[in-house]
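Researcher: I'd like a candidate sequence for this fold, 904 residues long. If you have to choose between options at a position, lean toward the conservative one.
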């Protein structure tokens, strides 16, 4: 242990309360461990963050002074002022400071910002570790180091680059397409990939082809299925003979393409019930080696495939596992394992499967990425011996994610899987005995499962995977005869390229060198949060807005969204981290150079026609113009002379490749005729309609607000008709006045999640419009309990407190007793995202539950209305009910202090 730094009262700063809690169990009692709760400084997020003295400076809006060596303007968010004040107080009581933030570039940057803010006058050092175990923490204390300025500079350069791209391009998108859109250095490339794949699907021409399957029987009762592969010397077409991007037959393919009629003719020409002969038997033994342990990107891919987790959720859960001491650091490009990890994995293999499954020698992996960085080891269970999943005490998704990490790590040190592939080639003569027809059957036998016992990629249950992978053929020898029992034609159709899933997009980005694995979760979240991408099942489908933005960027900034250029930028950032490249000349060249971003944006402002940029070209004829307006995508239908026949909103979640003529016809008809009533509401005798608005489908009673509820129709009246027909701004203002909210508001209710407009009947619509409905009164307070559906789904509301209704409960059938039961359970998350640590008991006077909460600034106690911080946050879990009540009573008696807390 480094005694020069670690005196009597060392202060250790980490990012999260969970990490601090785990470290407290491993460090001596004289250590003070405190969390800074993530980043403590950043570039300004809005004009409100900019100091008054700088508000007039044009560069302050970006937060980077590009005229003076790209100096960043760092702001301490208001949510962090109390944290910084507490840290400054604690540092005065400490003898030394240890910065124990995560060991990647971002962690290094957080430590640097802490030093800049705290300006410690006591000795300080950087403490890094890739797992939170007793031995790892001891090593970290013995090997403290200075701050790595090169890593800090690389992270700062990345942050400045991202800000320059986003804040320079986004206003261009607002001006030319629609307000609120955004561009990003990596996110825009990710969107482009998704849009490109959708365009491939639009251009794809599906081709049909047929095949023939023969069911063959052996005298001993064994059976196998064989497929027609050749007629004479002519090969039969399979899916491999068609271009996977266009769906058309490959030009060089010299194959026979069967249709259903031809396949049936062939079947009729053969002898069903006659014999066939095995001509060839080929056996090929091979071995499969296990995949390396997880890195950040492969963990995100497998968690998406196996558990259905998004990249963001995967990293959130993995972060928790790391901070609780269950796994090593989860942001890493390295597939290497330490010697102690290899020993632990091999020990676990012997205990679980026996010596026969252990690889002959320890297996070590090397990263294929030339820029592998971050932590020095793969993601694995922490410690010198691995806890089996059932011994961790974990539950739910934490347990599921830990188990695939545990199994993947073990599999990497297990024997290869030994398999044997068998191919049988049969000959069946036609009736004229002139042209032989060749049928083939293939089988796979797993001779020794090896690592597959522990881990099979893309499967949840390894044992089930083993059974499904094996195809056992009867033991046949050449010249042996079989009986043809039946023959059947098979129908096939070429499929368009599959849309990206989160897993396959991460895989593509990693392969191309776009971004870094540690940023993929953020990228996935951003492109969905910004409305560029939505999920269709597990697939990522682009929105029409994504088409418009991607086309503009590709047309005017092709280099910026080029995958190779983006990968080269990552290499430059790596060189800055290694100290082989200077950051300032790189930033100047990128932004201010003669071919820099600023010059291109200024030129684009002059060149880009706004109406052209808002028009989307899908690459297929639908008989309409598709545009992006203030409220989203809409269509315009014109006749041959250019007269507008119809216009209206397009559904916000419409998938571009799925737009077809029948869908357009229905939208045009609806626009021309108006919505069709489901029937009359028995309560009001008004018509009920199912409509689609900005936030999705909903039911509506009455039509008084129809124009307001199809906001793109209003957009088209104000923007498109004026700009295309008159071009006069005065008439544009006049048109806008015609789209006012009527005074008599109509009732609208969103459809429950998962319900489509086609599923809505009059009965369902009436039930929805009666929401929120009163269930009754609470037996303790005699106050009403209601249920309803809001933006975030079905809920119970009682005394201004909302609780979500989750399956199997249903908003239509839930009763008063069940609602009271749900309300009696501790609320896991408060309105502002704070977490309940535990319930201390009830206030004897008000009978309100008193909770110990974890908030942004640390633990506090709450009765639901009043909140009080703890005097000693380090011992929060030991607080008693009486102490909590005393804190709350003191806060209630001091309203001025309470008011100050609200302002913070």
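Model: Candidate sequence:
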């Amino acid at each position: 242990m480094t005694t020069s730094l670690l005196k009597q009262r060392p202060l250790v700063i980490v990012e999260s309360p969970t990490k601090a809690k785990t470290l407290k169990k491993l460090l001596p009692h004289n250590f003070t461990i405190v969390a800074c709760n993530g980043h403590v400084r950043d570039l300004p997020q809005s004009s409100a963050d900019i100091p008054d003295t700088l508000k007039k400076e044009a560069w302050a809006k970006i937060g980077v002074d590009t005229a003076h060596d790209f100096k960043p303007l760092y702001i301490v968010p208001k949510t962090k002022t109390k944290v910084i004040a507490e840290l400054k107080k604690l540092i005065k009581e400490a003898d030394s400071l240890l910065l124990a933030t995560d060991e990647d570039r971002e962690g290094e940057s957080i430590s640097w910002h802490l030093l800049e803010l705290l300006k410690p006058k006591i000795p300080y050092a950087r403490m890094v570790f890739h797992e939170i175990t007793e031995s790892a923490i001891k090593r970290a204390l013995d090997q403290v180091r200075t701050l790595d300025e090169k890593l800090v500079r690389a992270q700062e350069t990345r942050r400045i680059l991202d800000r320059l791209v986003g804040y320079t391009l986004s206003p261009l998108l607002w001006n030319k397409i629609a307000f609120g859109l955004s561009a990003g250095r990596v996110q825009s490339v990710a969107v482009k990939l998704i849009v490109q794949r959708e365009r491939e699907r639009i251009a794809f021409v599906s081709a049909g082809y047929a095949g023939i399957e023969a069911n063959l029987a052996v005298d001993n009762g064994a059976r196998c299925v064989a497929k027609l592969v050749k007629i004479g010397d002519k090969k039969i077409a399979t899916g491999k003979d068609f271009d996977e991007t266009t769906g058309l037959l490959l030009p060089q393919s010299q194959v026979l393409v069967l249709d259903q009629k031809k396949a049936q003719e062939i079947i009729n020409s053969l002898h069903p019930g006659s014999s066939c002969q095995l001509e060839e038997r080929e056996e090929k033994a091979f071995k499969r080696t296990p995949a390396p342990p997880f890195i950040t990107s492969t963990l995100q891919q497998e968690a998406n495939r196996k558990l259905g987790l998004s990249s963001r959720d995967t990293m959130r859960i993995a972060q928790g596992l790391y901070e609780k001491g269950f796994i090593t650091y989860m942001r890493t490009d390295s597939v290497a394992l330490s010697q102690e990890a290899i020993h632990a994995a091999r020990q676990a293999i012997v205990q679980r499967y026996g010596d026969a499954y252990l690889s002959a020698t320890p297996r070590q992996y090397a990263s294929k990425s030339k820029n592998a960085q971050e932590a020095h080891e793969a993601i694995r269970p922490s410690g010198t011996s691995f806890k089996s999943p059932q011994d961790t005490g974990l539950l739910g998704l934490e347990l599921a994610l830990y188990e695939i990490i545990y199994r993947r790590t073990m599999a990497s040190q297990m024997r290869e899987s030994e398999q044997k592939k068998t191919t049988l080639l049969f000959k069946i003569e036609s009736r004229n005995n002139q042209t032989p027809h060749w049928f083939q059957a293939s089988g796979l036998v797993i001779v020794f499962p090896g690592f597959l016992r522990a881990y099979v990629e893309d499967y949840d249950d390894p044992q089930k995977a083993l059974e499904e992978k094996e195809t056992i053929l009867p033991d046949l020898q050449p010249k042996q005869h079989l009986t043809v029992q039946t023959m059947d034609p098979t129908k096939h159709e070429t499929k368009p390229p599959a849309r990206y899933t989160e897993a396959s997009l991460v895989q593509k980005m990693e392969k191309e060198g776009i971004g870094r694995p540690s940023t993929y979760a953020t990228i996935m979240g951003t492109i969905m949060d910004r409305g560029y991408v939505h999920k269709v099942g597990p697939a990522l489908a682009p929105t029409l807005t994504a088409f418009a933005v991607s086309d503009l960027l590709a047309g005017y900034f092709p280099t910026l969204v080029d995958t190779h250029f983006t990968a080269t930028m990552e290499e430059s950032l790596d060189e800055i981290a290694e100290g082989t490249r200077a950051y300032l000349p790189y930033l100047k060249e990128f932004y201010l150079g003669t071919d820099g971003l600023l010059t291109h944006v200024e030129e684009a402002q002059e060149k880009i026609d706004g109406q052209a940029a808002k028009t989307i070209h899908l690459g297929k004829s639908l008989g309409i113009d598709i545009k992006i307006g203030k409220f989203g995508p809409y269509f315009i239908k014109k006749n041959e002379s250019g007269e507008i026949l119809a216009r209206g909103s397009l559904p916000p979640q419409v998938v571009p490749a799925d737009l077809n003529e029948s869908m357009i016809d229905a939208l045009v008809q609806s626009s021309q005729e108006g919505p069709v009533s489901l029937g009359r509401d028995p309560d009001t005798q008004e018509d009920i309609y199912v409509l689609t608005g900005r936030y999705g489908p909903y039911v509506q009673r009455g039509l008084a607000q129809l124009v307001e509820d199809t906001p793109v129709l209003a957009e088209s009246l104000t923007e498109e008709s004026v700009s295309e027909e008159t071009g006069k701004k005065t008439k544009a203002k006049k048109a806008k006045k015609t789209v006012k909210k009527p005074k008599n508001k109509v009732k609208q209710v969103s459809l429950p999640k998962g319900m489509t407009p086609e599923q809505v009947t009059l009965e369902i619509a009436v039930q929805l419009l009666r929401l929120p409905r009163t269930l009754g009164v609470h037996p303790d307070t005699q106050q009403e309990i209601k249920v309803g559906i809001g933006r975030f789904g079905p809920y119970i509301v009682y005394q201004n407190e909302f609780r979500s209704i989750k399956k199997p409960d249903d908003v239509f059938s839930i009763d008063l007793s069940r609602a009271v039961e749900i309300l009696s359970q501790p609320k896991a998350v408060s309105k502002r995202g704070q977490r309940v640590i535990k319930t201390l008991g009830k206030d004897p006077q008000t009978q309100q539950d008193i909770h110990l909460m974890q908030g942004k600034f640390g633990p506090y106690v709450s009765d639901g209305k009043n909140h009080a911080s703890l005097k000693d946050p380090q011992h929060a879990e030991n607080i008693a009910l009486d102490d909590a009540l005393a804190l709350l009573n003191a806060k209630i008696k001091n309203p001025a202090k309470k008011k100050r807390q609200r302002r913070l």
